[in-house]
Amino acid sequence: MGEFPDHPAPIGNELVVTKQYASAFFGTSLASTLGAMRVDSCFICGFTTSGCVRATALDAMQSGFIPLVVPEACGDRNAQVQQANLFDLGQKYADIVPLDEALSLMESLISRG
Question: What own/partner pairs with CB < 8 Å and gap ≥ 24 does 60-63 have?
Answer without folding.
Answer: 60/25, 60/94, 61/93, 61/94, 63/25, 63/31
